[in-house]
Each structure stands twice: as structure tokens, then as C-alpha cells.
Amino acid sequence: MTPTEMAALHAVCFTNTRPWGRAEFESLCAQKHTKTFCLPSGFALIQVIADEAEILTIAIAPQAQRRGIGTLLCKKISEDCGKNGVTKIFLEVAADNHKARGLYQKLGYREIARRAGYYTSGREVAQDAIILAQNLTSVAKII
Predict the structure, then answer these.
(1) What is the DSSP letter of 127?
(2) Domain 33-142 has CATH 3.30.1330.10
(3) Which among 26, 52, 92, 118 is annotated as catalytic?
(4) Any idea where the N-acetyltransferase domain is (predicted)?
(5) Catalytic residue among 104, 111, 119, 124
(6) Which secondary structure element, helix H or strand E, spans residue 104, and what is its range?
(7) What pLDDT score does 32 carry?
(8) Catalytic annotation on 119?
(9) What pLDDT score was predicted for residue 59?
(10) pLDDT by residue (tens digit) across 4-60?
């Protein structure tokens, strides 16, 4: 998936916040610590530093959501990270993103912190950013 395609999909998926543009995806994809995971109707970007990874974004085409694509991407990320010495994966999700939160909980991510009122753009009420983490040593039990 090209940075242009990523930006187009991101714009469709992230209507409550400012979607990332082509230049942002080009810049991220060019960084040595960034990895991209792509499927025909979705993608994920992560950054890996030492033994930790952060999921920067996951975007699934609206018509393909709730069909296991997010689960598949997250499992690919966990498997790849586990093979490459990563012990913990972090991500951030808006408190009102119930679909994503359900997915992450099912996959073993646990809340470790909150940023109160972090998400304001495009929302009538500010939403907390929930910081989640997954310990890869316990993933085998979940997957």
C-alpha cells in the first residue's frame, strides 16, 4: 500500500480527528524504526525501538470492519514483534472508540494510563486517550 493509498484510507476511517496525509505517511514509512503491515482493505503502522513497539495507527476500510481484519493485523504485529525481540507493544485509543477497544481487550491489551480530554478535534465532548499495553510473554495464551 502506498503512502497515498494509506492517506486516502486513513481519511475515510478517522473522521473524528484530523487524518494523516500522504506526506506524513511518506515520512513515517521512510524511518528505519517504522514497519508497515498491509492487507487489501487495511493497514497498520508500528515503530519498534529496542524491545518495545508502538502501534501508531490501524485503518480498516469501513465496509471491511468487523470481519477479522483488525484481529489479523494485530496478530501479525504480535508475531513479528515476538520474533524480533519485542517484549511489549503499546498503543493509544480514544475512549469513545468502542470497536477498537473491544478488539484490543480481546487480544490481551490492558489499560496502563489515560490522558484526560486528549482528543478534542471533531468531537462535541473531549475524549480521554487510553494507553494500552500488551506483554508478548502472555500473548500465547490469548492467540
Answers:
(1) E
(2) no
(3) 92
(4) 1-137
(5) 104
(6) helix 98-106
(7) 94
(8) no
(9) 95
(10) 999 999 999 987 778 899 999 999 999 999 999 999 899 999 999 999 999 999 999
What does the alpha-carbon distance between residue 58 and residue 106 come to, in Å, rounded to a whole number?
A: 16
- Three-state secondary structure along 30-66? HCCCEEEEEECCEEEEEEEECCEEEEEEEEECHHHCC
Residue 96: count other Cβ atoms within 10 Å of its Cβ. Answer: 14
pLDDT by residue (tens digit) across 96-135?
Answer: 889 899 999 999 999 999 999 888 876 778 889 999 999 9
Active site includes 104?
A: yes
Q: Give the separation between CA 9 and CA 19, rounded to whole angstroms.
A: 9
Give the pLDDT of residue 139. 55
Task: Break the chain into its structural domains and give their ranges.
Answer: 33-142
Query: Percentage of the chain with pLDDT > 90?
Result: 78
State whether residue 134 is helix, strand or coil: strand
> Cell numbers of 134, please?
500488551
Contacts 24+ apart (CB under 8 A), 45-52: 45/6, 46/77, 46/81, 46/89, 48/81, 48/84, 48/86, 51/85, 51/86, 51/87, 51/88, 52/86, 52/87, 52/88, 52/89, 52/90
